[in-house]
Amino acid sequence: MTSTPPDLVVVGYPQRLVADHRALLGAAEAAGFTAELVDPSRLGLAVVDGQVRGLVDGEPRTPHAVLPRGVNRPWPFVRQVCTAWARAGAVVLPTVAAADRCADKLETLARLAGCGVPVMPAVGVLPGPGTALGPLAATPVLVTKPARASKGRGVSAADAPTTHERLRTVLPLVDGHADHQVVQPRASGWGVDHRVVVADGRVVAMTRRTATPGDLVTNAPEARVADVLDPAGEEPGVTEIALAAAAALDLEFGGIDVIVDRGRAVVLEANAWPGLAAHVRGPAIARVLVGLVGRALARSGSPVDQVATAPRPPWTHAASAGGTWAATMAS
Questions:
Q1: What does R_g of the chain's alpha carbons equal in angstroms?
Q2: In terms of CATH architecture, what is 7-99+281-329?
Q3: What per-residue confidence (pLDDT) applies to 184?
Q4: Maximum CA pair distance of the chain?
């Protein structure tokens, strides 16, 4: 048995996702970890004497396990620190490669389409005087969003001419140099979608998200979120599409956003760090995530003598099960 338990670092902003962080830290400590929430500003990367090392508070440190949470904007830097930690033997979950595929909405869609997973059509563009909409130029209503944004930031909907003009003139003026954008047709089922949380190839939670009347942004703070206890009662294909997407992205834990377009379920985007607080059963999902970390540490040979690596919870749902997790999730 190890003299000290493995340490787990949750990388996230203390003033955001407060309930998520509380649930994760509690689940980690209950499983036998020493757990700490680390603000991204405390991280550093030292490239000295031919070595690359991750830093916390200016000092070299390699945790046994790392859970990045809600770090979309600083991800280009955080990923470098996480990569250094992973190369030094830390378990980073999801993996840096999987998180990278989800950090850019355009890259996510391209990967999924290449793997045969149905997605909303999209055109990626860089705002400026030469921007062209290509195959979407005649689409009645287009949705535009920054490829690397989250929580509905920067999402707009307009007809094609208005969208084109905004991309050519307004965005470059507002942002100076705007990030690349994802342009998509508005889904026929706009205003309602599903967030499906997948862990280790199984669905562990599903929510139905509904935008405010007249809006289409379902992940805005004002949107209504309801737990789905019986996935069989939802639109056909939601669970199967989410599981296929997670597998194609090599995403051991993540959230897949599925929307209905012209009668079929398609992937809208994916999130490597889905929030837990929106779910009534956030602590249960946190325990699943920490359990994945424990199993990954066991596989890697890290000191996990004191860490509880619980088996898969009985309420998880695979695509072929066709059942409900209501009974045991309610506890």
A1: 20
A2: 3-Layer(aba) Sandwich (3.40)
A3: 97
A4: 66
